[in-house]
Write a structure and sequence with these properties.
Elements (H helix, E strand, L loop, with lengths): L2 E6 L7 H8 L5 E4 L8 E5 L2 E5 L12 E4 L4 E2 L1 H13 L9 E4 L3 E2 L2 H14 L11 H9 L6 H4 L2 H22 L7 H15 L3 E2 L1 H10 L4 E4 L25 H6 L8 E7 L2 E3 L12 H9 L12 E3 L1 E2 H11 L3 E5 L10 E9 L2 E3 L6 H6 L1 E7 L17 H14 L3 E5 L7 E3 L7
Parallel strand pairs: 1-10, 1-11, 2-5, 2-10, 5-7, 6-8, 7-9, 11-15, 14-16, 15-19
Antiparallel strand pairs: 3-4, 12-13, 16-17, 16-18, 19-20
Helix pairs in contact: 3-4, 3-6, 6-7
């Protein structure tokens, strides 16, 4: 029995969905523990594309149980649409394979309206939020006025909370943000109906996990976004509103830290970022365009073009420390084919001072310059490789250098988007 956490080690979009899909074969239960539908996983299985926003990608495997933890903020409309879409693709979703935590918070329409209106008001200073209402929903959670799943399926509580919350939200929308108000009766009726559709899926995720642990089952925890979008440890304020780090699995799913056995960090062979915020290794040249085009770097949730750049070992080493990583999965190694030389940022230069960690000060971080180490590239297509020894020597050297810089072994290497285009060096569930 082993419990494994999969975390992004950059700014999200590292390919966690594919790795979770791969590891689900060895898991009995897959748990999503934070974030909302501002995240997205795209998987290609036997040529068929699947896109996930809330449901763990482990749903593709027959006989596995997928759980949405209390740390997730749930847009019920998106969840129901995702269930319907999977059904059209031949995947039946129901209580037998999906459970929604009764303690998860619900994204309401006023959260989305506030998100968009605030971002418009910021103008050039906008953060780059997806506008899905994630941040405002987490605000209500912390302010203790949020609507939880257990409220969504209780009509009286739902009605009282909607009416109470809209008094404040409509005041903000109309008087401060110059936007139109929402009608409480319409919101209540719409969400009451969605609650009824979701009722069969609602359960106590923490209790289910405790029972699974007693039975000796393997559990896989997946987060959304990445370490450097963490609300506490990321490049604040250009961050998400929750804790993607491995510790978030404990609070976001209801499990004690002593029950977690291993933490697998996912990193692209280069770096990408969506939205605003400092990006020290961003490549605004032909190399960056190569990564963007060859890597098809568009967000699966928003469709936004991702910023691209070289691998940043400073960012990775912060992630090693913050998550307690026991292994790495390197994705999209194939995208680097044709680039020569390759670069890895091994330190930051801040006005002549060498830094090995990401500074907390945004102004200091914006002044940092990358200190690069160059390695030879390769020209050979990697997508058909299935063993580490089959990779070109330059690719193997690149991966070994990542291990040297971080002190963490690479356990998985992805050389293409399809499930089979993967090299498994070590299974996190077995060692």
């Amino acid at each position: 029995m082993a419990n494994v956490v999969v975390v992004g080690t950059q700014w999200g979009d590292e390919g966690k969905g594919k790795i979770v899909d791969l590891l689900t074969e060895h898991a009995d239960i897959v748990v999503r523990y934070q974030g909302g539908n501002n995240a997205g996983h795209t998987l290609v299985v036997q040529g068929q594309k699947f896109i996930f926003h809330l449901i763990p990608s482990g749903i593709l495997h027959v006989g596995k149980k997928c759980l949405i933890g209390n740390g997730v903020v749930v847009d019920p409309e998106v969840l129901l649409m995702e269930i319907d879409r999977l059904k059209t693709q031949g995947l039946e979703v129901g209580p037998h394979n999906l459970v929604l935590s009764e303690k998860a918070h619900i994204i309401m329409p006023y959260h989305q309206r506030l998100d968009h209106a605030r971002e418009r008001a910021k103008g050039a200073g906008k953060i780059g939020t997806t506008g899905r209402g994630i941040g405002p929903c987490y605000e209500d959670k912390i302010s203790r006025c949020g609507v939880r799943v257990v409220d969504l399926i209780d009509p009286e509580t739902l009605k009282a909370k909607v009416e109470h919350n809209l008094k404040e939200k409509n005041f903000l929308l109309e008087r401060f943000l110059e936007d139109a108000p929402l009608d409480a009766a319409e919101v209540y009726d719409r969400y009451r109906q969605m609650g009824e559709h979701l009722r069969p899926l609602v359960g106590n995720v923490s209790l289910l996990l405790a029972e699974a642990i007693r039975k000796g089952q393997n559990i896989l925890f997946e987060g959304a976004q990445g370490t450097h979008l963490d609300i506490d440890h990321g490049t604040y304020p250009f961050v998400t509103s929750s804790n993607p780090v491995a510790g978030g699995a404990c609070t976001g799913a209801g499990i004690g830290p002593g029950k977690l056995n291993r933490v697998l960090g996912i990193s692209k062979a280069y770096t990408t970022r969506v939205g605003g915020g400092p990006f020290i290794t961003e490549a605004l040249d032909a190399d960056g365009e190569h990564m963007q085009v060859q890597g098809a770097e568009f967000g699966s949730t928003t469709g936004r073009k991702r910023r691209t750049g070289w691998l940043d070992a400073v960012v990775l080493n912060d992630s090693v420390r913050l998550n307690g990583l026991t292994g790495f999965a390197i994705t999209k190694l194939d995208v680097l084919t044709g680039l020569d030389p390759l670069k890895i940022c091994v330190a930051y230069d801040l006005n002549g001072k060498r830094l090995q960690n990401v500074p907390a000060s945004l102004s200091a971080l914006e002044q940092c310059q990358p200190v690069y180490e160059e390695l030879p590239g390769w020209q050979e297509d990697l997508t058909g490789k299935r063993r580490f020894e089959e990779l070109p020597e330059e690719a193997r050297r690149y991966l070994r250098r990542v291990e040297e810089l971080t002190g963490i072994p690479i356990q998985i290497v992805s050389v293409g988007p399809d499930r089979e285009e993967t090299i498994l060096l070590a299974n996190p569930f077995t060692g």
